[in-house]
Amino acid sequence: MNKNGRYSNTIVIQEKHQPLYLRNCSDFFPSKTDGKRVAVEGDRDDRISGLPRNVIDHILELLPVQDAARTSILSSNWRYIWSTLSNLVLDYDFCRKLIGESESKFKLAVDEILLLRMGNIVKFVLDISGAYLSCADIDRWVLFVTRNGVKKLTLRISNLNTYTLPLSIFECSTLTSLELTNCVFKPPSSFLGFPNLIALHLEVTTFVPTTSFCVINAPLLRYLSLDMCPGTQYLNIISPVLKSLGVRDSHYYLMLNCFINCKKLRVVKLLCEVVDNQNHDEKLTLEKLLISLPALEVLYLSSYILEILSADVVPNGLPFTLNFLRHLSLFVAFDHLGQTSYALQLIKNSPSLSKLEIWGSLGATTKLFLCDL
């Protein structure tokens, strides 16, 4: 306000501010007496409300959920905008802060947030990796979002929990992206797969077979990442258009035969210790996989994989050529002559190579060598 008693058009922005945290459930749902607005002349210059709706939605989606909810007190036009946002992210900081104050308050807040939602939920993120919650509460929230057309679902569960995925996830045909941490993947016998799934990222997720195998039929799957997942020996994925496969820190058998028919694979990262097809001809299976990938452009191989491949190296060279490989990253134990020899042959049989990374270990020492070719 200037000296004449009028509001100026100047906007003051704080460079630094403290984040707003939810103190109680009513912070999400202000009453009519909360934050009363005073009509002033400057309201006619409200440029934010005049922005296109998609721009306003994008701005609100960048805010923490509790701050987005607080915009409902700005005016009657803003009261329900936050509740129509298609992306609902309950991230680690939000969950940890609220659960730290009161677990029951957190549960009530999530229940009320979901209850006030309008329209479909495209993206739902629940990160309770820092706290223990009952499986019944998680099941209830997952059931709600799967019934409301969720496409991108992320669940990060605490390692204190043993959370078995509910039936509602396996029956959700709208999923295009699924990211799970510390879950148990045990599909029902009636599970037909994920018809629209494009990306599947699993971390410390245990596979439990219904019969002999845990079959995942995902005809549109393009990106698959398995990180420290027990039970991969039971996993059989049907994904003919798969483009990227990553396996890290797996200490369990991995069935590679199911990927041999994935002719569109461009990125393969095998940073695991054990690969087997239950017949103990691991080298043959690995070479079959590499031979069957004509579009392969990026390849990462662990020292363990190189050790398997380097067994009985043919003097005349490798039985395959990676014509389109551009990026090769190898973890080599230099004190194992076979690994070094196989790595050199692999480089030789990659005529289009433009980037080479070699992680070399000699005893307890590890070094990275980068080469732009």
From TrEMBL:
Q: Which InterPro entries match?
A: F-box-like_dom_sf, F-box_dom, LRR_dom_sf, LRR_FXL15/At3g58940/PEG3-like
Protein origin, superkingdom:
Eukaryota
What sequence ranges are listed for the domain F-box? 51-91
Protein's recorded name: F-box/FBD/LRR-repeat protein At1g13570-like isoform X3
